[in-house]
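Request: Not sure, any thoughts?
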Amino acid sequence: MGATALGSGFATGTNFLKKLVRFLRGTDTLSVAEKVYSIAGFLAIVTTFLLVMSIQTVRLQTTYRHMYATSAEAAIGAGRINALIYAIVMESRGIYMSADRRAVKQFADGLVRRNGELAEAVKAMERTVGDDDGELFSTFRQRIAQFIDFRQEVVRRGLEISPAAAREWGDSNANRTLRRKLNSDVEALERIYGERARQADQLADENRYAAAYLFMLGLAALLLGALNVVVMRGSVLDPLSDIAQATDRITTGDIRSQVPHLARYDEIGRLARAVQNFRDAVAQIFELEQLEFDITKQRDAAMAERDKFNDKYQAKKWQLSAAINSMPQGLIMLDGKADVVAMNGNYRRIYNLPETIQAGSTLEEILQHRVKSGLFSGDVTKYVGAVLERIAKREPTSYEINLNDGRTIKIYERPMDGGGWVSVQEDVTEQRQRERMLERMERFLATIIENVTEGIIAKDARNLRYLFINKAAEKQIGMSRAEIVGKTARELFPKETADLIEQRDRQLLAQQQQLEPVTDTINNPIRGRRRVSWRRLQIGGAREDSHIFVTMVEDLDKEMGAAA
């Protein structure tokens, strides 16, 4: 008996679910009682979701606060470490540029203090290390330790040996490599902490969504409660009154009277449909006529749209053809099988192609023609295979080829959507010849300047730093060009000589050039007081990057000694 009751209850539930599905699809198959019970069930489900979303909102808020706090602390720590590294580098440069040990001591104390702050900052940052940056932070911490040890050695050399020794130690590949790796580590950590912040923002968005869901669920609960009241009135009281009024109109002879609630499938709906079957048949005929009219209208619109798109296609095709043929370079398009899709006139002229080769021809046919005309001497099959391989890989490339007639062709290849390939080719023979001539001329001028007996010095007019000196100038000054290039006169010569050189620079700016020899006595820190004669000129202008002072120097004391 219990099994029979269980089976009956299961059948009843299945039947109700089927009716509910049909109701959701727009068919009113539920009775009044079933509608009320359904609304109550939905209200219970909404209340359950409301409780679950409340718990989820609390969890998301807690996770967001923790993630945001750690990401912000980590980002601040990374920024502080980066600033300390920069400060230590500045202190090191102060040591390099110091003139005596007293000045070195001032910068060395600052560097040691910054080293300590850097170590404390790295130690404080360990609190924020997580699974996503643990391995990277371990490597970063080791490099920071190497960086600190390296700078401690700079301090020791600067204090115990000389600033030059400290500079020699600091200006090394190992230092630059370590700095570069530290910069990469800091950038990687900043990206990780930025990602954490973005994840925190995503949690905040999810929290806002959860709050919105809570609001919507609460609103749904209120609506379901109100809906229960509306259903009772709309499903029972008002429909019965409407059917009674319609029955009264029909009994008086008004056979065209509209009967309400025909779409309902409960008892009220069946009563209404019994009176209105004939009107439904007429309504169906009208709907069929309207449907035929709509289909005709849509067909006419589709044909008009097709004609419009065909006109646009023809216009675009003409524009593309005009653009391809107006290109100064040669262009050829291939499909995935190396068949020619399109080519312009310049491509034909580069390889002297006949009119028989058109779109639809193959790349092999073009190469066979080039073989006959002497513009290709390779294996045609291998060449086509290599092109097909590049098309399959879809990797853009560029290269140059030398034709048998002496021309040089620059080729750019790019993949196209749909598996094709486009190649733009340009005759760069004259350009390459000019480049080779320019290279020979530069070597010629460099050889002349380097071997003249007169000293030649070039200086950047914007910052007054030396850019170039020849061998004769090196011998006159007594210093190598490595010691001079990149420095100013005040960094190389005594104050009296530096003042004189800067005075001559100002005169040159005012006069544009000083081709008449000017004789001065300068105090050379290597060769002592010397009488020199120099002529000067400017290259470029004050607003140009290539603004340069060129000085031609003769050592008069050397000439007098030779004469004596």
